[in-house]
Amino acid sequence: MADPKMRFLVVDDFSTMRRIVKNLLKELGYSNVDEAEDGVQALAKLRSEQFDFVVSDWNMPNMDGLTMLQNIRADPALAKLPVLMVTAEAKKENIIAAAQAGANGYVVKPFTAATLDEKLNKIFEKMEKAA
Amino acid sequence: MTEHTADSTSPDEVLSRIGHMTRALHENLRGLGLDKLIEKAASDIPDARDRLDYVARLSEGAAKRVLDATDTAGPLQDGIDARAADLTRSWQALLAAPARADGADAEWRALAERTMAGLAESRDAANATKGHLMDIMMAQDFQDLTGQVIKRITGIAQNLEKQLVQVLVDFAPSEIKRELDNGLLNGPQINPEGQSDVVADQGQVDDLLDSLGF
After folding, report:
1. Which of A54, B14, B21, B134 is the most buried (most CB within 10 A)?
2. What is the pTM of this model?
3. What is the pLDDT of residues A49-66, one digit of tens each?
4. Do A14 and B144 touch (CB under 8 A)?
5. Nearest residue of B to residue A109 by CA position?
6. Which residue of B has its CA nearest to A19?
């Protein structure tokens, strides 16, 4: 398991889903979690505070998850931040677009606690290898 | 062959023909009394949208109540587990002392063993309940998914309504048109979630009429 003090940002326009992801992360040992309602709010938080990991929905008002991801990768200060997409968008072209934009993982809703755990660990492993 | 035909037909001619077809369609619709049906369909859509909004709102409220309850119940189960673990350790410490040779403490030792077994069961049940609470919490993700579907259908209904009302605005007799035009001043751009039996500004109406050759 990675550092339990790791700071997460959960981005989703549905408060129910934000709470669920937050609770799951807590259950997995990560209790340092903040929330954002859309890509615009998330980018503002990412640029003003320190975060270690982003879990984001795709379909959101104001700015969707893919655009937010592209903004993160284009910003030298944020470019290396791991981003896990958790979304109901299940088309192949969505998954390819997210991968091309630099997503570190892709989870399709509805998902289980085990799936989230597995994808997070996979990303942590890759990050450790890269470090 | 086909290319030659396409080249020899000017865009104006195409538009004019579509315009005539549209007008003919409109006259046929009116002849059949279908304009009333369209009007009814358009006026039913806001009601359908309201009902969908109601479903979305109630589902969200229910999911929130469930999450509030699971958020409260989780720590209660943690508390039961922690207190049972603490009591078990205390009993274990007491039992660690050698038993009396005369057997005078046999009765409370037996009770202590039974208490510890009961505490172990409590801990198992508390942890199993935590697992069920997680399942209940996860099941609330339906609200996100059904919510997205409802949003989408609401959007489709709104578009359909716009198009139907546009048909009515474009082809209504002039006195009804004036009525409808007045409504457009409070159009959906200001409050798209609210009334949208009112659709577009005059510019859009004019553009559409122009494009149809009227």
Report:
1. A54
2. 0.70
3. 999 999 999 999 999 999
4. yes
5. B145
6. B67
